[in-house]
Give the backbone structure.
Amino acid sequence: MRPLPATFAERDATVVAPALLNKLLRVHGTVARITEVEAYTADDPASHSFRGRTPRNAAMFGHPGHWYVYLIYGVHHCVNLVTGAEGDGQAVLIRSVVIDGIDPRRTCGPGRVCKVLGIDRALDGAVAELFDDGTPAPTEPLVSPRVGISKAVGWPRRWCVDG
DNA sequence: CAACAGATTCTCT
DNA sequence: GAGAATCTGTTGT
């Protein structure tokens, strides 16, 4: 299990997203394997960065390789990995993970991922701890339609591992 | 300043 | 399958 290079996140979100599959993230000492992601770029009408920088989404315009955490519907937290170059407003949403010893049903869905890992706004802007344990990502990641949004629904930007 | 929509999930029917 | 919970930024008065 070795840390990912700093350059890993310094690419377009649509490139980083599929590369994140089967990688490991560590938050508060808990390690989770990434199984589903979604890419968001500044030209995406559904992206928080689409309408420019605000206090809430400032981290999304920050340094790549850091976390962007926000509160959705005033209820749930969602966690993203900032990608591209500083100021790009790109990020990859972590939609599902698997954690050893935890029911997979409690770790599928962006809100649940944050709940299980204890992620909240305190992690916004923090450096992401990402690792590679040698598990290969699928050569052809499964691309599925986007859900939970009403704009650009047809854009192929969601990837998940088989099964 | 009020109204509204939203990258969601839980609960009940 | 429908509705609630409830924060944030945008848009319109």
